[in-house]
Amino acid sequence: MSRAWSDAERSRMRRAIDLARPHRTHPNPRVGCVIVGAGGKVVGEGAHRGVGTPHAEAMALSQAGGAACGATAFVTLEPCSHSGRTPPCADALVAAGVARVVIAAYDPDARVRGRGVVRLQRAGIETVVGLMGEDAVRLDVGFHHHRRTGLPYVRAVVADAEARADDAVSVDIAALIGEADHLLATTNGPALPSRRKLAGLAERGHLYVAIEDVQVIGALRRAGLVDAASHYARIGEDHDGLWTQDGLRVMDAGEIGAAYRRIDLERPPAGWPPLICRRAEAAIPTRYGRFRAIGYESLDDGRHHVALVRGRVTGEEGVLVRMHSECLTGDVFASLRCDCGFQLQEAMRRIGEVGRGVVLYMRGHEGRGIGLIDKLAAYALQELGRDTVEANLDLGLPADSRDYGAGARILADLGVNSLRLLTNNPAKRAGVEAYGVRIIERVPLVAGENDHNRTYLRTKVAKLGHVIDMDDRSAGRKREKDGEGLPPS
Ligand SMILES: [Zn+2]
Ligand SMILES: [Zn+2]
After folding, report:
1. Ligand 2 centre from 330 Cα, in Å?
2. 95: CA distance to ligand 1 center in Å?
3. In angstroms, what is the C-alpha Rg of the chain?
4. Quick check: is 10 catalytic?
5. Which residues, in sequence order, are bridge partners of residue 103?
6. For residue 305, what pLDDT band results from cuts at 50, 70 and 90?
7. How far is the CA of 380 from the centre of ligand 2 (A)?
8. Which ligand is nearest to the CA of 33?
9. Most confident of 109-123, 187-201, 309-323, 415-429
10. Average pLDDT taken over every residue of the chain
């Protein structure tokens, strides 16, 4: 349900974002609101200024007064629907007689997401979401991350020696300490390092953290980044590109592992640990035959993956491989919303039948990498009419954030020379091949199409380039020759 926004609408939302930006509202979100009267003129503006102060919508409404009747409100975040220190903004908009509400982003908190919108719509107000949603999330990425995941938001800034010698960077370090002071004063987070410790770390050009996120630190340490000079991490929002201007590279915590993998692939530094480690092995008899289950730990994120191996695969060519992305709802609960469980069973059945192959069960791929909670939240949005890709994007998440590095490493560890990959997803093939794995054939895996997932499957074909012949149920038996890329329909 993508819609075209007019330049006028964009400029109103841009203004709302600009209004919100200067304020330090932590732990509340930055929110801006612009109200455009029936005549097309701005009649009210507001921005949240911090805990205990009025919400952006309330400020804009009081400025607009009677002119709010029949007006359009542009707001950067879904209006609140709960009574806190202030009455719910959704109700205030209704009471003021606003005719239309344009929202940049849904509330990231899964417990309340969509409620403000529903409240407005029930009151007969035309309500649309998604105008400049990405910009709105970027406005306060720390807030969105924290409300989505419950984890503190940590960013890493990597500076080269030249950038560090630059005066502007020293100024930035001071700004960074100031920001950390503010956060230390306002956050009840775990294991806060002292200001002095932070300053010391920054001066020595070492890792800088405002809040220690144990998982992130662990990942950094394993990646060999903690002890490297000129690495800083900071919490919170970007200084509007300031860091990048000064030759600093700003990364998300989640990106750090990916950056490490890139470095590792280009030129593996001597003594760096392998990315995956074989931890345990046991036989598992299944209804599709006997498999060996080999448990692997991914060293850059600590995740546990399983390789279900049937027959001899070491040194073999054209081994049948399913790289299966974990899907709790499909694999375990037999959900009909997707085809994952069916594909897993079908892959095991086929590998059992031919007597040789590998099912890689990749953890952390839930919902194409967005995680279980966000996947359920995306399902909730799909109930409101969004498709699987739009829902991810609405939540400020990528349509597909899976990485196949660990899977590729496991195949290398198993000694598989080349493989035939069971997938309908050419992008997955490319993702695996990017890690140097030789795939001689993509073997379609069509199973479990039903009334509940037909739209989902069609979306995967239309938007994610999957190759599924929706009308030919025998497609699962057809094979696509190497190099014969089918265009997405
Ligand atoms: Zn509010
Ligand atoms: Zn699934």
Report:
1. 5
2. 14
3. 25
4. no
5. 75, 129
6. very high
7. 15
8. 1
9. 309-323
10. 73
Q: If pLDDT is split at 50, 70 and 90, which confidence band does 488 have?
A: very low
Which ligand has its closest atom nearest to the C-alpha of 31?
1
pLDDT band at 257 (very low <50, low <70, confident <90, very high): very low
List Cβ neighbours of 338 (8 Å cut-off, separation of 6 or more): 327, 329, 330, 453, 456
Residue 283 amino acid letter? A
Which residues make beta-bridge pairs with 72?
A: 36, 100
> Is this structure's pTM higher than 0.85?
no
| Matching residue, tokens 């890139």 | 262
User: Which residues are in the CB-under-5-Å shell of ion ligand 2?
Assistant: 327, 330, 338, 340
Q: How far apart are CA 99 and CA 38, in angstroms?
A: 9
- Is 276 strand, coil or helix? strand
Question: Could you report how far apart the first and last alpha carbons of the chain are, in Å?
Answer: 19
Do β-strands 418-422 and 438-443 pair in parallel, antiparallel, or remain unpaired? parallel
Strand order in the sheet with 418-422: 276-286, 289-298, 304-310, 357-362, 319-325, 418-422, 438-443
* Distance (Å) from CA 105 to ligand 1 centroid: 14
Mean pLDDT (whole number) for 110-118: 86
User: What's the CA gap between 236 and 329, in Å, rounded?
Assistant: 33
* Per-residue model confidence (pLDDT) at position 167: 53
Identify the residue whose tokens are 């009334």.
451
C-alpha of residue 81 to centroid of ligand 1, in Å: 7
**3-class state of residue 27 by DSSP:** coil
Closest to 68 in 3D by CA, of 116, 36, 104, 102: 36
Q: Which of 159-168, 242-251, 257-266 has the lowest mean pLDDT?
A: 257-266
Active-site annotation holder among 222, 368, 402, 442: 402
Encoding tokens for residue 382?
């799909």
Element (H, E) at 234: strand 231-235
Question: How far is Cα 390 from Cα 386, in angstroms, rounded to an integer?
Answer: 6
Query: Has 240 been annotated as catalytic?
Result: no
432-486 pLDDT, tens per residue? Answer: 776 667 899 999 988 878 888 888 878 877 777 777 765 544 333 333 333 333 3
How far is it, in rounded angstroms, from Cα 16 to Cα 45? Answer: 8
